[in-house]
């Protein structure tokens, strides 16, 4: 057993260290608000989001970017609430170029269908996506525009952070979200991108068409971001950038219950086996085994505390590198973390992540009032 734990921690610590170094290697984006030169089509799929749309629309109104240089396309995915009514009420009070479309379902992925429906109607060169439960930073589009002018990428990914209202559930999702940002930025820093978030993502419309959009993976309900990233990376290597800037952060809402939070993560994890990116799969296995080693060490300590120093070393090494990754990301994105809440969630996270992975491999999940099979 000791040999197993040593092997796992010897793999885990360097892997997380590799991500931390990658975050530092990733160039920071400093905006100077040069004269804007790019036009965007902002796409937002929504389903039963009447409680969130007003906040999103207000943050779009507050964007400090010329309104003539972007359009907003919202796609209603068979909502059963008053979300569309809220949009039209807002449209009467704004100068935004705003369009509402009805989703055209043609595949097993409602969200991919919604984005594809919008792209068919988009008028601008750049497609940029976010989610209905998000809030945008005022300089969001300026960040994208400036990076495009400086580096001429084909795709750009940006940071997404959860809000936190103080509960243990919120803190868990906030720290889990920061860890995912660390994985994303770290992989981008080494020019091996394998993680991104569709709530903060942009690409040229011609690029979407060149890689044939979601063809070959539109039967998978999730993955509108990851699978597209893989395809663009394959067709346009070294033409993908990451917006490492606190000015580009998109804030998203936490789930209201543990059940919903776990279902969300099962949905995310369910696409992992379908990914073609080998580094992503290797990292996933290492993270899984690292968390398993953590739980085994805790169980061993509770059963037999004789090897106390060895077990504390295993537990301590994992927690230290995890904290370093979270601290690195939180400082870059100006989202401070609490050491106390880190210690609390550090004991919960391994158990939940193993449960999520197990269910993502064998079961189905629920999302937005729909049932999906793996």
What characteristics describe this protein?
three-stranded mixed β-sheet; seven-stranded mixed β-sheet; 374 residues; alpha/beta; 12 strands; 51% helix; globular
Structural overview:
A hairpin with a 2-residue loop joins β11 and β12. This protein has 374 residues and is an alpha/beta fold. It is built from 12 helices and 12 strands. α9 crosses α12. The protein is globular. 51% of the residues lie in helices and 13% in strands. The mean pLDDT is 90. The longest helix is centred in the last third of the chain and has 26 residues.
Written as H for each helix and E for each strand, in order along the chain, the element string is: HEHEHEHEEHEEHEHHEEHHHHEE
How many angstroms separate the termini? 33 Å
Total strands: 12
- Class computed from helices, strands and strand pairing: alpha/beta
What overall geometry do the principal axes of the alpha carbons give? globular
Unreliable spans: none
Please, how many helices? 12
Rounded to an integer in angstroms, the radius of gyration calculated over CA atoms is 21 Å
Helix % is 40-55%
Mean pLDDT: 90
* Sheet with the most strands: spatial strand order: 3-2-1-4-8-6-9
Largest sheet report: 7 strands, mixed
Beta-strand content: 5-15%
Briefly summarize what is shown.
The protein is of the alpha/beta class and 374 residues long. It is 51% helix and 13% strand. The protein is built from twelve helices and twelve strands.
């Amino acid at each position: 057993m000791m040999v197993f734990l040593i092997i796992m921690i010897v793999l885990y610590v360097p892997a997380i260290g590799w991500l931390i170094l990658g975050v530092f290697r990733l160039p920071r984006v400093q905006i100077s608000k040069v004269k804007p030169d790019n036009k965007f089509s902002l796409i937002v799929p929504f389903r039963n989001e009447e409680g969130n749309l007003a906040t999103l629309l207000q943050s779009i109104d507050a964007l400090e970017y010329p309104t003539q240089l972007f359009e907003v396309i919202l796609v209603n995915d068979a909502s059963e609430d008053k979300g569309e009514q809220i949009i039209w009420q807002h449209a009467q009070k704004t100068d935004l170029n705003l369009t509402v479309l009805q989703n055209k379902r043609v595949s097993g992925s409602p969200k991919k269908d919604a984005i594809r429906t919008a792209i068919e109607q988009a008028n601008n060169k750049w497609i940029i996506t976010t989610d209905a439960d998000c809030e945008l930073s005022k300089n969001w589009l300026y960040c994208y525009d400036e990076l495009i002018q400086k580096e001429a990428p084909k795709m750009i990914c940006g940071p997404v952070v959860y809000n936190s209202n103080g509960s243990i559930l919120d803190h868990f999702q906030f720290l889990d979200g920061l860890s995912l940002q660390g994985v994303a930025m770290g992989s981008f820093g080494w020019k091996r991108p394998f993680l991104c978030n569709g709530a903060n993502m942009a690409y040229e419309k011609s690029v979407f068409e060149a890689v044939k959009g979601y063809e070959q993976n539109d039967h998978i309900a999730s993955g509108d971001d990851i699978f597209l990233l893989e395809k663009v990376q394959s067709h346009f290597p070294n033409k993908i950038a990451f917006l490492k800037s606190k000015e580009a952060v998109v804030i998203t809402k936490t789930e209201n219950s543990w059940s919903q939070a776990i279902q969300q993560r099962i949905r995310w994890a369910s696409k992992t086996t379908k990914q073609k990116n080998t580094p992503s799969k290797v990292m996933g296995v290492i993270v899984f085994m690292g968390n398993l080693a953590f739980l085994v060490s805790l169980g061993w300590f509770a059963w037999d505390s004789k090897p106390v120093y060895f077990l504390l070393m295993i537990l301590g090494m994992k927690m230290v590198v995890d904290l370093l990754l979270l601290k690195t990301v939180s400082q870059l994105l100006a989202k401070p973390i609490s050491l106390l809440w880190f210690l609390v969630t550090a004991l919960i996270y391994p158990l939940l992540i193993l449960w999520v992975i197990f269910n993502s491999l064998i079961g189905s999940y629920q999302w937005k009032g729909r049932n999906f099979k793996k």
